[in-house]
Amino acid sequence: MSDKKVEKCGERCALQEILDVIGGKWSMSIIYALFSGKKRFSELERLIPGINTRMLVKELKNMEANGIITREVFATVPPTVEYTLTTKGEKLEASINELYKWGMEYVA
Amino acid sequence: MSDKKVEKCGERCALQEILDVIGGKWSMSIIYALFSGKKRFSELERLIPGINTRMLVKELKNMEANGIITREVFATVPPTVEYTLTTKGEKLEASINELYKWGMEYVA
DNA sequence: GTAACCACTTTCAAAAGTAAAGTAATGCCT
DNA sequence: AGGCATTACTTTACTTTTGAAAGTGGTTAC
């Protein structure tokens, strides 16, 4: 009766968590961009070609809610916001690099 | 002017390829199910709770087009169709297992 | 004073996803 | 012989998500 989540869905639960974090169309690009250190909103926008503001905002919010990034606001002028990977986020590096290698190898 | 794809987008191209394959809402679940061997359409439907027929069809077609699964039809009655991972598909196992471990570790 | 910078928000159309029912060929049961 | 089940999908109608573009508000450089 304890260990709820693991007991309840185990494998599939992990899968759900993963998909919620990296399943989105842009999440992986964002995480990838953040591997090289914290970034401001506009930096991310420039680093990820094709993304639009709305989606970047949404994904960042989702990632913050999922605990894989932190958002820090600076009362500068103009205002500055920095996004950083948490430990949980950083731990995705191995997985994403693996996927990445696969992608590089299999681009037809 | 040659080596088009690599030259044109390099890193980002690999990312696109990856997302096209595992970025869809259900792709990873399907690939995961196929790691344990070929499956029929209805087996996949049963193995992946929550998916609907239309989406399963769509994802399978997409995966076939992406060369990560093969589709084999048997003229039995009722007809049987088997889906199998290609080598390209199988090569995703390491990456997905990595992600998987992450998911298991960080399910809050 | 007006144009630009930053980090968003809003609006609306388009694309993607979901649910549920339908299709065609056959076999099994009664 | 009629009806139901099985398999692998289609089709239709609908909801949700995403995308493109313009707008907001405070400040500062020109």
From TrEMBL, chains A, B:
Domain HTH hxlR-type: from-to ranges: 13-108
Keywords: DNA-binding, Transcription, Transcription regulation
Keyword Transcription regulation set for record: yes
Domain of life: Bacteria
GO molecular function, one term: DNA binding
Keyword Transit peptide in annotation: no
Xref: PANTHER family: TRANSCRIPTIONAL REGULATOR, MARR FAMILY (PTHR33204)
Name of the molecule in the record: Transcriptional regulator
Record lineage: Bacteria, Pseudomonadati, Bacteroidota, Chitinophagia, Chitinophagales
